[in-house]
Records
---
Amino acid sequence: MAVILVTGSSTGIGQETALHLARNGHQVFAGLRSPDTANELKARIAAEALAVEIVQLDITDGDSVERAVKTVIDSAGRIDALVNNAGIGGGRAVEETPLEEVREVFETNYFGTVRMLLAITPIMREQRSGRIVNMSSLAGRMVFGCHGHYSAAKWALEGLSEALAFEMAEFNVRVALIEPGSVPTPAWEKGTPPPPDTHYMRSLERLGQWATHTMKNPAAPVDVAEAVAHAIESDTPHFRYPVGQDAIEDIAGRASVSDDEWIEANRLQGEAFRQRWLEIVGVDYFG
């Protein structure tokens, strides 16, 4: 049994991950910003009598992070695994995204993870054991227009995770990245819509067509949870875990061409773009 702290556990992937790990016999601490409103999570924990303790945790607040980690250590005496799941979305053109919105995306998706790492890595280093699982995204490997800042934060997380994997190796701590494609969660209902007079409607439409196609056969939150469990439980975990058919297809397609070929393909418009995507990825997302 491992002692596991999961951030962003109120709904969606985080909730399913916390419950799935508890079903696998682990002691789970589910971190979320507002425990008082976590009625669904509490009901699911009670219904199955799972070993999940809810802790208040806002990864954008250093004091909250410190209190949450102390709660886990005081209760369990150790932290064997950290799942950095908490995050927010964002999808607008670079020109049309206010700087404060960019900061908000990075404050949660990158700096929030860093706060958790600053609190957890000394514990795992002293234990000389541990697993750190960072929730990235297909957007951390492949980018569309009007998704730049979210993708940038995930790309930053990917680079951070690779460096961390090297640094923690001598202390027997493994690091993994989870890279889901489209997963139906409440996060899809959040986010700021583009301005009605946007200059980038074609890019938005392309992103929307991609999402429409991928949501016909999406991964489920439990698929992501299973990938997280493998990263924690396996003796031979992977570094990267693409989750979902779209993630597998798109990452493979992106890797099959040069950077210049990929950029030129995505500069195409209309039917020319559709045909080139089909050649690269092998699946018609835009028909």
---
Amino acid sequence: MKSTIGCFRLATVFAVAALSLVAAEIKNGADYALGDMPAELTARVRRGQPVRFLLEEDAAGGFRWEEVHSANECAVTMEHRVSAGGASPGRAAVSIAKNPSAQAPALIEFRYARGKDATPQRTLRVVVYTVAGEVPDFRYPKNRINERLMAECAARGIELTDWHVHIRGGFTPEMAVERERASGIRQSAMENHGREWEICDNARLAEFAAAARRANPKMPVGIQVNDRDWYKQIDASTLAKFDYILADTMIMGKLPNGRDKRLWLVKDISEIGDPEKWMDEYVAHNLRILDEPISILANPTYLPAPLNGLAEKLWTEERMKAVISKAVEKGIALEVQAESPYPSPKFLKLAKSMGAKFSFGTNNFDGVPKDLTRWLDAIMWLDLKDGDIWTPACLKR
């Protein structure tokens, strides 16, 4: 089976699928009759594992199948098989595996039609969710680090909040409520928004906000924005349902196929070019994001893997001050993220001296609790007090 891969605007593809969006759960390896396909299939698999399904077709009559959109680094494989001797019916086998680095539900859009010369018109949307593996306990463990962290916060007047809690990988708002009750660390609920993400329009944003509020009306609810024109996409009434907006700088530029370039997938220095020139562009990218109406800059000073060894050289004091001063000017918090080396102690100390506010986040993939040592270290390095911690309007009411 021949596949044609193209790049289309996600909004256009969704407009077609939304006409008759009836979701059905994929049963791994199951057969589906082409004429009875729903507009949407969903699958829930552990990170990196594939889901495979077979589409029934008439081998004699031919079949056209196009992948028109694939988001979040999915490996999509389409294979045409016919029974022994060439007899019909044939089978179009489709396998989809999420990249282990993918942080959100995978979106794949197909168009298909019977007949080898037919123009594909029917649309199928496949959403592959990552679910957690066996998670013995999603609550924070009672260990020495966490006990000291909470003791330090109590002594310093800090009400500790995790502002970077994704509802994904099997982790639910209800689990966040229980985690907060058990640990004393205030939890939030957040989802990604963007053209290449599962939540891509106002209706889905509103649905997410409502679901999070049902779990706990007092829990802060936020959005991580991934498109740089997000504030034009989200209408004012929908935006008002959220307490804060988080952004990072980890998506910059375009791939040859027109998709956004995710910096955490950059593996070779050839994708960067001259590091100093790239860094100038990257700092400008940071400043543009800080000019957006966001609340938190997540993982500040992040660098793609090929530049890790150059962090000290590339993040000069001048560049750090440019980012910090813009954040201070705009009242945007700088995140201290669990299990992340970014930002460096040098950046954090400079930010503290310049009057920056800080927030804490875990950036979870699923329900597995993260090690919070990094939070404790930052509190001790910087001698943080309540006045150094960012507080949104929702907690000042």
---
Amino acid sequence: MRLGDPETMTPRFGAVAGELEGFAYEGAAMGFAVVDLISPWPRRRFLRFVARAARRHVYMAHVGAGWALARTSLRLAPRLGPLDPLLRWLVIDGYGFHAGYFHHHDAIDRQRRPSVVHGYSQNVFDQGLGRALWFVKGADIAGVTAAVRAFPQHRRADLWSGVGLAVAYAGGVGAEELAALFSAAGPYRLELGQGAAFAAKAREGAGNPADHTEDACRVFCRHDAAKAAAITDLALEGLDVTDSAAAYAAWRANIRQRLGASPDKERPG
């Protein structure tokens, strides 16, 4: 078995527990992406990994590619090859997570974005940054809430979306804390739910459900995880991907709209 060959990696993931499997694929994708980014000729190892071994974990794999770009340069992104018009934005999400997790003094405390992040990439960067907040603050509800509220108002929606994704995918708290976080999100509860729905879809596609994902979806989305994942699929209907940024923004907005159509009486107290 050649360790550098994406096609031969799948058996090695058998040692990772199903619930944690996505993180292993995220790390492997980062490695293959780094090889693509630093190679003097096109290798397309990341795309080969996504197309075969990591096809069930395609969301996490794209996030891993974002880590690779954060460790090299965002300007090298074309070396990864032609990416899916929607999933390519998860690369920027991963880039934002890396900034928040490894450079939190700059990205979170000083609220700085890298100068190379422009346009709608700033919104997606902040979604990744919101995910990092959940880990940097140690799943502390008060700490996460205070950190998000310290940001300018125009950045909070994307940050809450990232928080929702991290909570639902990675877990770390119980029912009481989930309800407290939902309450703290205030006007950004639909963003919290949109992030949780993304997490549910990632786990559904990978076939590795988790109880904490189910719990988070029931609180943030007012649906079980299966329904939340289905909403992300329904939100794709009629989407024009000609403009990649507009399509990704519309996808997220459509998810929030569908979540908002659920009866208010189902909201947690």
